[in-house]
Amino acid sequence: MKVLVSFFNRIMQRYLPDPFLFVIILTFAVFGLGLIFTDNGPYQMVQHWGNGFWGLLVFSMQMVLVLVTGHVLASSQIFKKGLGALASTAKSPGQAIIIVTVVSMIASLINWGFGLVIGALFAKELAKKVKNVDYRLLIASAYAGFIVWHGGISGSIPLTIATPGHFSEEMIGVIATDQTIFAGFNLFIVLALFLILPFVNRFMMPSKEETIVVDSALLQDDVQAATLEKGAMTPAERLENSRIISLLIGLFGLVFLFYYFASNGFKLNLDIVNFLFLFLGILFHGTPKQFLEAVVNAVKGASGIIVQFPFYAGIMGMMTTSGLAAVMSEGFVSISNEFTFHFFAFLSAGLVNFFVPSGGGQWAVQAPVMLEAAKAMDVSIPKTAMAVAWGDAWTNLIQPFWALPALAIAGLKAKDIMGYCVLTLLVSGAVISLGLLFF
After folding, report:
1. What is the distance between the alpha carbons of residues 308 and 147, in angstroms, rounded to a whole number?
2. Which of 203, 254, 305, 339 is deepest in the core (most CB within 10 A)?
3. What is the pTM of this model?
């Protein structure tokens, strides 16, 4: 395994471009594929690209806030002590790799945005506490835990088809989560990944000579607020350094969260995760001045999301409007039978996910093709939906789109972790395939 890891790491370090160049290459690739496999001309493909370019603005802002609010919360002393105490349970590099994988998987099952941030933040704390642990593998292991998100309670596809009024209701009705998220085949996949992935990551540990250890001093991001004598403060400075202001606005947030959870149960979405992180950050930093200084530090890592997500939205525009995504899905359906259908649905979703890296958006594109084929072959509709969901989650492991927040928190580049993620992709792909074929 170490030979494979070393090989994949060398390949990624040598050939994987920066995520911005990666999305540009994907743009050209989709443009060319659209010309070859659809009846759209160059001018039409550019139109589809431009019309979709700003289609992810709301989601982009949500992802920026996931990064910023998570980073702000992590830089507070209370949160750092909590993560630090948990990190202290790891006594060796091997234990650190296993623990960060498990924690990230648990957090991702609860909510995918929560998992992305918590995994990366916890990995940083482990890097400070555990000597001689490979920092690249630590972050890769935290990101690998993200793979289970679509099999958890925040999975967008199973939640969509469980919601009355969803766009395919006339075709399949409303499908409860006991047939998708809590179905036997899905529980098998999740449990198998929990049992296997932590140890796969552990066995990928490089030799001592190849281990890259980060200086813990470089991971410190404490906000050092300037202290002023109270008598020397202006009225404005008194407000900026007032704990009462932070406490009052923080209580506003906590009251709303109490109302939300009392009304909806423990139902997390991206907005609620960001809301929770934001107001805990305000409370934990104590004063508005300290909070804002933490925000300034956190925003520095958001540039990749701000610049790259519109290009992915443009790619999605070309894929969906040109019909290229449907063509890809139909190609896999055409070689399927009753036994292999869900396996090929999984593979097709993994391929489409490279170009449409959004669970909800991907389901909107693939559902008409996959559901019609599932009905024609008389195979399980809920399992079809979950096959697409797992395909979407699977290739996120080597899709820089989703890695950007974790990489920004960690201070690494995509090529630093993708060599490890390739091997995780192969192992997890085998586990998911077996679950879809035989359960």
Report:
1. 22
2. 305
3. 0.85
Contact 91, 129 (CB under 8 A): no
The predicted-structure confidence for 21-31, as pLDDT tens digits, reads as follows 999 999 999 99
For 149, what's the count of Cα atoms within 13 Å in the CB-facing half-sphere? 31
Nearest to 87 by CA among 138, 50, 37, 43: 138
Q: How far is the C-alpha of 177 from the C-alpha of 44, rounded, in Å?
A: 40
CA distance 21 to 5: 24
DSSP per-residue string spanning 25-85: HHHHHHHHHHHHHSS--HHHHHHHHHHHTTTTHHHHHHHHHHHHHHHHHHTSHHHHHHHHH
- The mean pLDDT values, 10 residues at a time, for the chain of 439 residues are 85 88 94 96 97 90 85 84 90 96 94 85 92 94 95 89 88 94 96 97 90 76 52 82 94 95 84 90 93 88 85 92 92 93 96 83 86 93 96 92 85 92 96 95
Rounded Cα distance, 311 and 3, in Å: 36
Could you report the per-residue pLDDT of 49-70, keeping only the tens digit for each? 999 999 888 888 888 888 888 8
Cβ distance 21 to 309 under 8 Å?
Answer: no
Tokens of 201: 């990551």
Burial of 222 (0-12, 13-18, 19+ CB in 10 A): exposed
Contact 388, 349 (CB under 8 A): yes
Q: What is the pLDDT of residue 74?
A: 77
Backbone angles phi, psi at 225, to 5 degrees: -80, 140
Burial of 435 (0-12, 13-18, 19+ CB in 10 A): buried
Neighbours of 22 (CB within 10 A): 18
Q: Residue 198 corresponds to which amino acid?
A: P
